[in-house]
Amino acid sequence: MQIRVDGKIIEVAKDKTLLISLKNLGYKIPSICYQEGLKPEGRCRLCVVEIAGKLVTTCNTYPKEGMEITTNNDRVKVARKVNSELLMSEHVQTCSIENQDHELCQIIQDLGIRESRFNPKRKWKVDLGASVIRDNNKCINCGRCVQVCATIQATYAIDFAGRGHKERVAPYSDHELNDVACIKCGQCIAACPVGAISEREHIHEVIEVLKDSKKHVVVQTAPSIRAALGEEFSMPAGTLVTGKMVAALRKCGFDKIFDTNLGADLTIMEEASEFLNRVKKGGPFPMITTCCPAWIKYMEHFYHDLLPNMSSCKSPHEMLGILANTYYAKKINKPRDDIIVVSIMPCTAKKFEITRPELTSDVDFVLTTREVAKLIRHFCIDFKNLNDEKFDPALGISTGAGAIFGASGGVMEAALRTAYELGTGKELTKVEFDQLRGPKGIKEGTVNVNGIDIKFAAANGLANARELLKNKDKYHFIEIMACPGGCIAGGGQPLPVNEEIIAKRMEAIYEEDRLLPLRKSHENPIVKKIYKDYLDHPLSKKAEMILHTYYTPRSEF
Amino acid sequence: MQILKESSMMAFNKTVEKGPKWVIDTLKNKGLTGRGGAGFPTGTKWEMVFNEKETEKYVVCNADEGEPGTFKDRMIIEKNPKTLIEGIMIACHVITAKKAFIYLRGEYECLKENLQKTIDEVNTSDIEIQIFQGAGAYVCGDETAILRSIEGYRGHPSLKPPFPTVQGLFEKPTIINNVETLTNVPLALMMDDWDPKLKLFSLSGKVKHPGVYELKEGTPLSKLIKLGDGEPKAIHFGCFGGCLAYEQFKDIPLTPEEVLKADCFLGSCAVIVTDKKTSIIDVATNIAKFYEFESCGKCTPCREGTMRVLAILENIAMGQANSADIDTLLELAIVIRDTSFCGLGQTATNHVINAIKYFREEFEERLCKSE
Asked: Of the listed A487, A504, A512, A521, which one is catalytic?
């Protein structure tokens, strides 16, 4: 279809909004409230252009034959300027305009505004959650977090409250996030264009324990950190920085650097054995993975009937944490109290997970990818120019199966590799399960183990999970990850994220799997050693005691 | 008054007898248009819903008369509820809707009992007519916000399209009409001498005889003022319609087109009179307070802008502003008008823009003297 933009005739797609078409053609139209892939809300009113004498928002307007658009005359400019000044008056009192992290501040710079004519007027109480903090003093009511919470995560933990200029984003009845059915996934953090939502930082606590010479501080890094941490130091998305990351952490003063991928391998050993057990016993099916703490909390709030379906395995970092506190502590002859375990996770829900009463003794602190980048900067380390180093071998050798935990579908793929070989005794000819890869929200497939067709599925994004669980009886084994794309797009990962960046991080993770000599969890020598020296065999009494957990039903509100 | 005539179910019985096509054609021929403010032809609207293939359809009567200075619907509900109910029944019959809602303004609690009594008395058909009371938000006068409110969500306006005629209440095709429109339906169907030009004007403010006047569309403004006996300086057409200088425009005929020439909207035909003793800035501040309170908070210009407009006007009223503030006020007011999401924001600053246009010297007199 042909339309006229600033006098020039341009070809545009009929089914795309003007905002998307114009952006693809190189017009930089400012917009805040619109999020790719979600329904336009038309709240911010920045993306206006002039059509037939009227100012029209482009985010929700489709082209019509013969449409004439002016993108940049004085009227349009004034409208954008005034509206962004108004937005700024809600936000900037706590922020410097030069802050490049905030989309709003970038737009304001692009529009050439130095200061807003309107002074800030409101003062809100900051919601200091255990893992997610909301500061409404920075909030500009764009509604992106609300939309993500509702449409991507189907959680509805936050919505708008109040009217007019008293309107604010708030949990139900102005409660705090801690007191409502919030799953702490942190997708609202990733959605926020002004940094009004952030993780509860634990950097200072970690710095303090690092100073304490009596404490033996071990750190473990999740599979998806190495595929994203580089972005914090302006390296291109999808750069694997495993070696640099280990070197940097060692420079920070951590005593031992362990790999959560090993925990992932252990999880697979336990989970695959649990699954094979259920196959023998005939259920309950589907068995559902429990690596994702946000999903666990979601289930505890909204899916009480699934409690018997959940695997009882702890998440990988919890498994490694408890092993560091027991098996490893014994090995190096230290009292358990002197061992401090810090987990570097892509996730804000993990911060909540370690405060669960049944899990408190495993891990002491969780830092997100963004926090660890801050920590590295705090210690004045030139990340980009570090030489690669290796994980400490005591709990630092892992397989490709552990590596792919970071991408949605990865846990299932890793579990199937092991379950197939342990179940059939035969070697898997092709270890890649292509049905489980890629950016789709729901993925499924079938594999034959001992004459039984095992139907498996993986979902990412809890709205997709809800969709999948509608026909859960079809499947034997289900993996659910709360964040769209899996942990690589977790709420603690570097910002910004978009589909392209997620795809690149995913590629990096599968690349790591491809390059590793060992690609199945049960082949991991350390895992074998741990079972030989300490745990006997998967699902042994000892393993049940330290590697498995239970869940508590919670209120829907 | 024409609007107070009763049809005593004759129109409904005739509708049942002659069918929906006849109603739509008659309304089109007689030229009934919406009286809520937009003036959309009623027959055409009904035909659009009639043509939708969906089996479930709804009728909503907009009785959320929240516009300051408008009280004509209230008079109809008080004095001629039977004809209103009959109009709703006709609408239901035409589109085969089984359920109708009367969205009654929250503050009209006092009308509810009598209205319910009339429904019980008049409605002998199997159509269910439910009174749904709003909580008093002005923005719920917007048709899409009414629908959200009835559905149980926040009364926020939503994007059009889809229009209510296609996807309205509970995403089903819906007729939404104003009280005055629906009351006119039976009258238009039954009376041979029914006049589409007769409209209700709510006159209030500094006049000796405020009230509802039924006048022919196109009557000069001065005639209405004479009937009410006042000496205006300025006229406000409700809050949203903006204001004009009376001396300059006293002879304009009261039609939407002519009033628009003075940059005002006739809308729901509310006429508020300000006399020479009242400061236009005080009136503007008062109206700005109303909008600041009633903005729903969805879009940036209305949520933030209405608050800033009020702050600047208060500054001017207290004599603490300088001339740059008037320019900021005007710029802000124009952006709010041009870029707001719904009708509330788009009309929230008409009164300011016009006040500066017609009475700028009053603003300048109040500026900070030390400058």
From this structure: A487
